[in-house]
Amino acid sequence: MNNLLLEIQNGIALLTINRPKSLNALNSETLSELDTCLSEIEKRDDVKVVILTGSGEKSFVAGADISEMVNATPVEGSAMGQLARKAFGHLEEMPQVTIAAVNGYALGGGCEISMACDIRIASENAKFAQPECGLGILPGFGGTQRLSRLVGKGRAKELIFTCDMIDAQEAYRIGLANKVVPLAELIDYCKAMAGRIMKNAPIGVALAKEAINTGSDTDLNSGLKLEANLFGLSFSTQDKKEGMTAFLEKRKEKHFIGK
To answer: Hey, which of 58, 116, 118, 188 would disulfide with 91, CB 3.0 to 4.6 Å?
Structure first.
């Protein structure tokens, strides 16, 4: 991989977008590498949590690579959007929990890739924006869809129409960021959160993720039916038997096996 760094340790995959000269901007090559890398990670039983971040201390992802887009045709622009949709879809749909460690600028495609993750932890220097309308285009990597689902239509329209940049505390206030921490503590905080997640049954977590993601795109009654079905499915697992038996025996559960 030319533009990504991957470190897997203790059930955590730390995936770093590594294009520091362009502030980790996303070009087609990087999107393709992300698609391939995440596709492989989601098949691995030894990875329970993915932490996504950017190299350096200034930028998470500064957006899509404008130098690639400036002369792109409509067909090429659409192809880039579809490539991002596919790559980001892995973050949203993979059974592993995905955490965006936002360590600086999360602009355009950077804000959009963070929103495809399950959880966003922002450093104090993080900045979020969807500046596409100021470039003559619109958010094309999920921004018009995921932002409104996270912060509501009114705030999403305001941010997209004005191209305003907001800081980490404002992102936290409106629900775009889950937590704000000092930059020096960002990765350790995300790893600690990953550790708390991994103490729980992986199938239970994966099914809960599916229920939230799928149910949020349906009406309440359909979501409740989905939840009930997934709830029933969880009763078929060895993790359920161990977790409940340990509770009744007033002992700590043994290591969950994901089956």
So the answer is: 116
In this structure, are strands 119-123 and 97-102 parallel, antiparallel, or unpaired? Answer: parallel
Specify the domain boundaries for CATH 3.90.226.10 within the chain.
4-198
DSSP reduced 3-state for 30: helix
- pLDDT per residue over 230-239, tens digit each? 999 999 999 9
112 in active site: yes
Q: Is 132 a catalytic residue?
A: yes
The residue from 132, 158, 210, 242 that is catalytic is 132
**Which of 85, 199, 218 lies closest to 142, judged by CA?**
85
How is residue 211 written in tokens? 């229920």
List 7, 42, 112, 227, catalytic entry: 112
pLDDT band per the 50, 70, 90 thresholds, residue 67: very high
Model pTM score:
0.95
Which CATH code of 3.90.226.10, 3.40.50.300, 3.30.70.1520, 3.40.50.1820 fits the domain covering 4-198?
Answer: 3.90.226.10
pLDDT band at 188 (very low <50, low <70, confident <90, very high): very high
